[in-house]
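Please think about what follows:
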Amino acid sequence: MRYAPQGTAEGTLAVEGLNLSVAKGEFVAVVGPSGCGKSTLMKLATGLSFPSSGRITVAGEGVGGPVSIAGMAFQNPVMLPWRLTRDNVLLPLDVVKPHRSRMRTEKAAYRAMADALLASVGRVGAGYTNPWQLSGGMQQRASLCRALIHEPELVMLDEPFGALDAFTREELWCVMRELHASQGFTTILVT
């Protein structure tokens, strides 16, 4: 994958010769220095970017667009300020099939799921707050819930706890391990 200025063929080669295979249910960490292509790997695996050459396969299917079985938590929680926290958690359900077609008729059930996820990360009642009222750690917890709300088979974590203090980071790692063990999704973490 190359990042090239618009209208040119040359650019910075971000990922080359990569071959990665992850078994269902595994928790894998990809470690490397800043700028080595870790976030690009995440974008390629989730269909947010496409390779210049080669192919990407997730769950036996070639990636040609956004991967609906994947949930992703980014370095920056990116909360929409005009939506309540719970509505930010529910955002993927407005987009991901088959949930988007059921969102209207099953809204109460989905809201209950969001509230349960927020409670699982220690944020009981936080769904009724505005994102700008939350600390960075609380926003990152909501971001993690947003990655999990559609019950993905693959969870991609792009350094989601890097900007947090040591105590919050350790607490969220424990929560993530518990969720991974109880739900059995495949996890890829870059750090």
